[in-house]
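look at this record:
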Amino acid sequence: MNTGRIRVIVRKEWLDMRKNKMVLGMMFLLPLILVLMILGTAAAFRYVPEQMSDPLVPEGTPGLPPALAQMDTDDRTLAILNDQYMFYLLMIPMVLPVYIASYSIIGEKETRSLEPILATPISTAELLIGKVVGAVTPAVIAAWASFALTALGMYFLATRPVFLYLIRPIWTVGMLIHSPLFALMSASGGVIASSRLNDPRAAQQISGLLVVPLLGVSFLVLMGRVYLDTGTLLWVTPIILALNAAILWLTVRIFQRETILTRWK
């Protein structure tokens, strides 16, 4: 494994990314919309409280965590909403790498700039690692920055119990660990789809199916059916690691450079 070749591929990916206005637009627009949505909800609870009085989970609900049970109605509702919104922030490292990775390979198919790269001594693993790292890094930075801005805004807009509930380990540690893992899974899925397809939108739609389970869990949280804690983090992380290992292995196996070089249309 030649790290120098991987670094060259990563730099090339970032240079190409700067020229793609659609990818750049998504990288800034999606995090901005999500952060403004979360902080806008907190501002509504603070400045228009009479409009936000309907509780999602009433007091005395069975299985209510102590931290939520000790909050008043508005704080408890906002805290549960924030838990759902944190899943939306995790969509950043799942959605953005798909756009980057799919345009990376399919774009090079269209411009026929992938053939010269495949004809070099670079191995398939080095090429794909470079492309995946190039797609994962900006998405993870965007996710971390979005969470930091959200936490900063909630510090000023929400009450102390709501703020502390937001930055508990399930989210602070989870964002640090799971953002890269989700981004890696998404980028690998984007590489698999785009190596088989010639339309970046089709590759994005297929890879976007990875987001569906995340949205499903977020709705369960919103309905009060699931309450997240550190134990959830401990048993979910090994599962995500195993999925990443399997998808990375599949990515290298599916990407057939000889087919691209000899029968590419």
Q: What stands out?
A: Residues 3-263 form one domain.
